[in-house]
Specification:
This protein is mostly helical. It contains 6 helices and no strands. 64% of the residues lie in helices and 0% in strands.
Length: 169
Amino acid sequence: MDASQNLPELVAAAQSAASASQSRIAAARAQPDSETAEADLTAAATEIGASAIDIFAVFEARMQRYFKRGPLSRKVKAALLDVGQADLADRLHQHYLMINVLKHGTGASHRELLGNKSTLVSAKSTDNDRDDAAAPHIDLIDVTQPGFFDTLAATILEAAAFLQNRNAP
């Protein structure tokens, strides 16, 4: 991802890559008896999870300039709640938790998602603590559900537009 590209361009590129991975997932599911179906499904899901982590990190890096320091997602959530945009604040928070789980595995974010009634993110429970496994932790978050990446992308773009308009002269 080129540093000179703006956030919407980077999100569009990531969405395109995720869409290609989603097509590979659909193809693998259409032929479940194929010898390579499971490997193709896992590879495509891993690509989507890694892209989600990357684009959220780009969002945080680009938007951090609107706050002096500290956890960006919490500050954006608070700013959104202050102006009555609870839906966007909730979606951003759910995606923040999801990205934490994809990056770090089980922990506080995973427990919060498991206890959440939201259908935005599909968290999976596990019997074993997988924090030491390699990220993304696609065994804990269902990144294969249709619209997964598009919802993340839309939330990122809405939150970015909010911050840019809020801080416009």
